[in-house]
Amino acid sequence: MADSSYLKVVRPVWRAASEMVRSVTALKTLLVGVIGHVDHGKTALVRALTGVETDRLKEERARGVSIVPGFALLAAGEGEIDLVDLPGHERFVRAMISGATGMRAVMLAVDAHEGIKPQTVEHLEIARLIGVRRGVLVLTKADLATPEVIAARAAEIAAAASRAGIQAGPVIATSTVTGAGLPVLGAALAGLLDDAEAGTDDGFPYLPVDRVFSRAGFGTVVTGTLRRGALAVGDPVEIVPGGRTAVVRGLQIHGRPVERAEPGRRTAVALRGVGLDEIGRGQALSMPGLLAPSQWVDVALAAAASAEEPLAGGTACRLLFGTTEVAARLRLLDRDALEPGAETQAQLHLAEAVAVPAREPFVLRLDSPSVTVAGGRILDPASRRRRRRDPRVTADLAALAAGGPAVALAVRLGEVGAVGATLQNLTRLAGTAPDRVRRLLAESGAREIGDRFVGAAAFEALRTAALSALAQHHRDHPMEHGIAVERLTRALALSETLVATVLRDLVASGTVAQAGNLWRRADFDPARNESEAARRLEQMFRRAGLNPPDESEAVGRDVRRREALTYLVGAGTVIRAIDRVQRRAVLFHREAVASARTRLTEAFPNAGTPEAGFLAREAGATLGISRKFSIPLLEHLDATGFTRRAGDRRVIVELEPGAAQKP
Ligand SMILES: Nc1nc2c(ncn2[C@@H]2O[C@H](COP(=O)(O)OP(=O)(O)OP(=O)(O)O)[C@@H](O)[C@H]2O)c(=O)[nH]1
Ligand SMILES: [Mg+2]
User: Fold this and answer.
1) Protein residue with its CA nearest to atom 7 in ligand 1
2) Strands 167-168, 134-140: pairing kind
3) Which atom of ligand 1 is nearest to the CA of 176?
4) Which residues make beta-bridge pairs with 136?
5) Which atom of ligand 1 is nearest to the CA of 89?
6) 117 lines ligand 1 (CB under 6 A)
């Protein structure tokens, strides 16, 4: 892409600049979902607090009912709160969820006159299921209720919120007609900001798209709640699922152009490189290459506490996360049904592949009756069908549910063992940016080998396995000087890169020694095992000089002599010279080769230049040997750097003009 080199230069500068601006302005922000039963005054409250009319659709105004989430910005002390006004009607619970999964706190509105109603309960349940733990509780339309009723309602609401695990201050009674309670409410919301927990920044952006439109001068614009990490102008993004990439051309938060958006903000993103019809609701923007589409996801699951019956394995339901909704089938792994309010780890098999980050909250609903039955967080977003009632699977998933990215990495490295896992695979399970994953891996002592990471424990096991394979080899072949990597690789059934890395590691720690292409235990000394057979064989080759016997003749079928020969070759006493054209090997004693070198240097004292070099035939005549021996011998001399070919002739390297004189 023509942009990329330009971006490489410009992006760091932008980043640095916006970091600076941020550190000066250090804005606290929080996304708060406004929840509650239909007509309980949510939109009126948002309007009274911010002046923003969130019921913008013609149909919403005509019916006086919110249909889609609406967004408004509330300035609160040092910070800003993104209020998401959610629809309360039971028919729009799916829309409510699509606006709710990014929220970090709730503002619950309950009509003081009507009190708790079905969607009050369902919305609280949804908040609990997606992990929201804080909120502000409001009794609306206080002008229509007596103080006694208000007091009774307040107690009911506080109890319901606490059952849903939501911590909140005292219930605030408000009226948008008289303005009562509104300043107190504003202060309570600002109070949420004070202890807004930091740390939902995973270092990569994830923005589920809720709207797509085109704006003159900007092209395609998408809006959504930015999660998990920041997004900056110039960033490349991938549209998932689908895989198309684009570049962020511009950013706006509540109509203000910004260079960079922080996670947790309602954000409009202008995209370069994508048409209006190439992106839609249900898709998301994320870091290129990070998320993989999958039809199997592992989840931490909690059944709705308000459910009337247990949630059975195999239930057909709908999975809702971000702005995505997809048909799913529940696969319970450790039981057949999940009791109301109970939690476990499970799998979902999806009708279509989704690309979702690990730890993303979700909700499960039934089609009919249309109720929320469960929710939780994604554990492994790119899983496969798992075995049921397998203690190992259960333990791994429980660990994933309880821990953060570091635990996820340990789980995956434990699963894959010596085979290792790619950075991409590890990043997907950890649900955090690749650079952070690298850091965590380094801290855990994992080893990077080729394109994979192997956990510290698995690597230690490999060291042990390699050492015992070497010991076994020494026992089986006491006269060999060691084992070649290829052979050890076969013995251990692992990749050569992996085995070579382990061997190098063992050499570094002094437990293994290397000689040529052979590896042995440092405490193994093959010379101790030199046998009578080896001594006899060596004598035979020494006497034969440059006219040695064939290998088959020398060792025959005798296993001991075969071992002895391997030992002598390993020790360098006998040299295996290869005739590459004839594809045969000839074995010379080391001394025979040394004497051939001396005799050739004496016979061709001028062989330092190509013109005065010797032909193979001439060398054979000088040494009194046939081509059968002279060709492999000369090739060996070439290979070891004594001679060098110059056309038909050979030059003796040390006689060449300018060659370093031997002392
Ligand atoms: N008297 C009185 N009426 C109110 C008050 N707040 C809201 N209302 C009325 O209650 C009705 C519903 O208000 P909305 O704010 O639209 O309710 P909502 O919770 O947003 O409804 P949905 O979004 O459809 O779930 C409207 O007719 C409002 O005028 C209040 O404080 N006092
Ligand atoms: Mg409304």
Assistant:
1) 41
2) parallel
3) 31
4) 107
5) 25
6) no
For residue 44, pLDDT beyond 70: yes
Q: What angle do CA 25, 28, 29 make, to 5 degrees?
A: 125
Show the CA angle centred on residue 320, arms to residues 317 and 322, nearest 5°.
170
R_g of the chain, CA atoms, integer Å: 38
User: What tokens were used for 97?
Assistant: 């969820």
Name every residue whose Cβ is closer than 8 Å to that of residue 404 and which is 6 or more positions away in sequence. none
Which one of 141, 150, 174, 185 would you pick to mutate in the ligand 1 pocket, going by the greatest count of ligand atoms within 8 A of its CB?
A: 141
Report how far ligand 2's centroid is from the alpha carbon of 117 (Å).
15
CA distance 47 to 32: 15
Peptide bond into 241 cis (omega under 30): yes
Distance, in Å, from the CA atom of 172 to the CA atom of 149, rounded to the nearest integer, reads 14
Give the whole-angstrom CA distance, residue 431 versus residue 428: 5
- The rounded distance, in Å, linking the Cα atoms of 229 and 208 is 13
What residues contact 168, with CB distance under 8 A and at least 6 apart?
Answer: 108, 134, 135, 136, 137, 158, 161
In ligand 1, which atom is closest to the CA atom of 144? 1
The pLDDT of residue 662 is above 50: no
Return the DSSP state at 255: T
Tell me the pairing of strands 105-111 and 28-35. parallel
Closest approach atom of ligand 1 to CA 119: 25
Distance 72 CA to ligand 1 centre (A): 17
SS3 569: helix
Mutate to test the pocket of ligand 1, among 93, 108, 110, 176 (most ligand atoms within 8 A of CB): 176
DSSP secondary structure letters along 395-448: HHHHHHHH--HHHHHHHHHHHHGGG-B-HHHHHHHHTS-HHHHHHHHHHHT-EE
Q: Would the pLDDT of 88 be above 90?
A: yes
pTM to 2 decimal places: 0.75
Question: Which ligand has the nearest atom to the CA of 180?
Answer: 1
pLDDT tens for 223-238 read: 999 999 999 999 999 9
CA 326 – CA 240 distance, rounded (Å) = 14
pLDDT tens profile 412-460: 999 999 889 999 999 999 999 999 999 999 999 999 998 999 999 999 9
Identity (one letter) of the amino acid at 511? T
